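Dear colleague,

As promised, here are the two records you asked about, laid out in our usual form so they can be pasted straight into your sheet.

NAME FIELD: protein one
SEQUENCE, THEN STRUCTURE:
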Amino acid sequence: MSEAAYVGRGVHRTAVEGLALRIFDGTYDEGDTLELPALMAELGVSQTVLREAVKVLTAKGLLDARQKRGTFVRPRADWNLLDSDVLRWKLAAGAPPDFFADVLELRRAIEPAAASLAAEHRTEEDLAALDGSLTAMRSAGADPVLAVRADTAFHSALLTASHNRFFVQLRRVIVPALVARGGHGGSGGQAGPVPAHAEVVRSVREGDGDGAYMAVLELLDLPAGARWAGA
């Protein structure tokens, strides 16, 4: 279980994960009413445990309950994709290409602005983290796992260096999407993108907010086959 997983323990976690799986694999589609007695038997849990699982998924925007209708799956547009568990379940179920296109649009809106703020607010610790991720990129070679790890470290460090608490929180969306995209044909250890990442760090180090903004846009506009893990 990843550290982003639902933090409940034992049967409670089993119930939440099992019910979420049934929603994301299409066993229960949006608008479907849950068959609670059948779910209790399938999951091997008590009514109390299942009720708690329903509460968790209701809070995450997946479920709702109405008198005479019962508990049902909400429309996908209502699912809270900014929730780390919901995003994890979505990615594990196999997100379509347009999902990653939406993530890229989000990144184009957020990361250049974060880089501009980083140029203004970065600390020596922030610069060390960015430099460390560049070193890891250069050392990754053709190892796709190390390449993805270095890339996610870079983008996480960049968001952190903005010192904007909301941008920092978006690591929870961007990093899992980068990891998932890296597992779907990411380019691995190509050397070409390293200078593009290095240009971002140079602008941040020099306090050049406009330069950092444009450098991130250019990085995100690299052809997919030339990016580190889709970056």
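NAME FIELD: protein two
SEQUENCE, THEN STRUCTURE:
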Amino acid sequence: MAETISDSTMKSNATTSMSSEDTAPQYEVHWFRSTLFQIFVVGAVFFCAPGMYNALTSLGAGGLATPWYANATTAAGYAFMAVLCITGGIIVSKIGVNASLTIASTGDIIYAGSLYLNSKNGTQWFLMFGSIISGCTDGLMYAVEGPIITSYPEPDRRGRMLALWVFMRSAAPVIGGAIIFGLNNSIDSSGGVSLQTYLVIIGIMCAGPFISLLLSHPERVQRKDGVRIVFRQTGWVQTFTEWWTIVCSRDILLLCPLFFTSWFYGSYIGTLETQYMNVRTRALCAFILRFGDIVGGLMIGYFLDNKRLTIKQRARLSFIGVMVLNLTLWVWTAVVTKQLEDKKPVIDWTSGSIFASTFLLFILFELATMATQTCLYWIIGQMSDDFVALSYMTGTLRGIECAGQAVAYGIKSSDTTNWLSIGLNVSLIVFSLPFAWVVIRKIGVVAFAKTTFAIEGKNDNETSGAESDKGQIA
């Protein structure tokens, strides 16, 4: 892609921007159809499904006594999730946003049930089955929620809406963690959590499918700027053509190494919790750590909407900031790991400095990871305004992340050395930086050709125009 924009393109973009900003809504925005309410619905569904799943994973090994088989099933779940994330946009474009969200809210209920049965009866085959089903539905969840949170909000509120979404998705593990902590705070030995824990979490998860019914169809959403959201209906040939062109575009491929490593840390931190912390301290982690998610998402979200800085400055400063923070935390992790391997403690919240250093490290990892995640979604949101195109992009983002998680949990499905995980995480971050920077430095400077492709493919009469632009996509 060229590094400069032609005068005609600049004029066209300026005209489009002015028309979008000056267009006043021809109706009174109803709260039920507002973008804010839609984000609340998506956040509430995530709260009940993947959010409560995350509350269980905050315990390490899903609350079970040993991490190895749980890590193997989690790796399988993430492998299927990766496939459904990447291809889920096609499903969303065919069955619609509402049906996709409802279906996506069901799989985690099965997974939580499998944890309960395995903890009670040792039914390991069902744990593997539940993890795979959960992976498939969560993959569809990420494919449908991504374009909602990036295309529904008005451009000048996108960072704050992302922050709100982060807050709601992170509130689930906080509240779920409070429940878990309340049910397990008296267990001061290592092992699995109480069976009642799973029953309470399953009850909350069951509300997700009903909440999903409140979501408005994209074309019925009312934005404050009066711009309508278009959910394009295309034939199978055009659908696969657009999907393939977008997911294989140069900019998306350059971001893939960063996508892959953005959640790679989780298996290592979860294994450390299971190995060195007793049950009540793991329950405390499940309750407190997600506050780091909330703080990280809110901080970066409001920064990304800061109009005192240009879009170019926001993109570059946020990217540099979160990458420096991530690398710093891995240096700290190496120090803490050496201490744990030397002392081999069973950490309780009364353990003094070893608890404080480990616990604070875990919180900062949550903050850094959610700040990174919010930044990545914001970057994707700068690359297109088309709902279907964004479903392909955000699905690819989450799919590659899941592939990284599958590899990470696969590595920790056996008792491998901790230094392998540390070395891989640092190496992957360093490897991804120059590729991601090629894309970051374009934001606010040059146009992204994928947007042109998606907009010109809006109807069958314009398909040929879209086809002719394929060569322009970076």
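A couple of things worth noting about protein two: The chain is about 75% helix and 0% strand. Residues 20 and 389 are 19 Å apart (CA to CA).

Best,
R.
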